[in-house]
Write a structure and sequence with these properties.
This protein is an alpha+beta fold. The chain has two domains: 61 residues; 150 residues, Alpha-Beta Complex (Aminoglycoside 3'-phosphotransferase, Chain: A, domain 2), CATH 3.90.1200.10. It is built from eight helices and nine strands. It has a five-stranded antiparallel beta sheet. It is globular.
């Protein structure tokens, strides 16, 4: 079958579609993610990729989820975000039996660009290579940051705090998750730039985006404490 290079989202180099399969280069950290995907499948979780093993070249194989993947953030709405938060809550809860601890499995890159949409609704989560045990808020802060697009220069037109509250309510976040939420948002933002090499050609642009995003949190810290935690 003919290979089709996949360009939706912010694709990893070397990701191709062959028939009904996606194939991507295997990484050492992929083992945890692939084991978790198999666990999710056994638990009948409907929104993750199905892992199909490795091919003769050692590439990871996944069942292709048909739909649309945004190339950039800033193209989603609150209804889609709330649907997505419920999807995330479901796999977080399921993952407690996988980690056998109080920690959940965090995807760690829950951008709209790693989400498949059908009929304008989120139906699948892809690119699980960064998955690892963690706290619920590590995923939630990242989701709110990117899906609400806090780093946008048009953010004055967005009811960021109101959308955060609605989305966190859709997830049914508890008090522990919401506690010190402003600090958690800043920690999550800083983590992105701390994990990026200064030699990366996108480093300065990303650093400016992170700093601009943090500025909103700092300016709205009191409101965040009052309204969220």
């Amino acid at each position: 079958m003919q290979e089709e290079i996949l360009t939706g989202g912010r694709s990893t180099v070397g990701v191709v579609k062959i028939g009904n399969e996606v194939r991507r280069p295997h990484k050492n950290e992929s083992d945890f993610a692939n084991n978790f995907l198999q666990f999710l499948e056994k638990q009948n979780y409907p929104f993750s990729q199905r892992y199909l093993g490795r091919d003769e070249q050692g590439q990871d194989r996944f069942f292709y989820i048909n739909g649309f993947v945004p190339k950039e953030i800033g193209e989603t709405n609150l209804v889609q975000l709330c649907d997505f938060m419920k999807m995330v809550r479901q796999f977080h809860d399921i993952s407690l039996d996988f980690t056998n601890s109080k920690k959940v499995v965090c995807h760690n890159d829950l951008s709209p660009c790693n989400t498949v949409f059908q009929n304008n609704r989120p139906v699948g989560i892809i690119d699980w290579d960064s998955a690892a045990p963690g706290e619920r808020w590590e995923d939630l802060t990242y989701i709110l940051w990117l899906w609400i697009n806090i780093g946008s220069h048009r953010r004055s037109e967005i009811n960021i705090l109101g959308q955060m509250k609605t989305a966190l309510s859709a997830y049914n976040a508890d008090k522990k998750t919401l506690a010190n939420f402003a600090d958690k948002l800043i920690w999550r933002m800083e983590k992105v730039i701390s994990q990026m090499s200064p030699q990366n050609f996108q480093y300065e642009r990303t650093k400016n985006w992170v700093e601009f995003s943090k500025l909103w949190v700092q300016e709205n810290r009191i409101k965040l404490i009052k309204e969220i935690g």
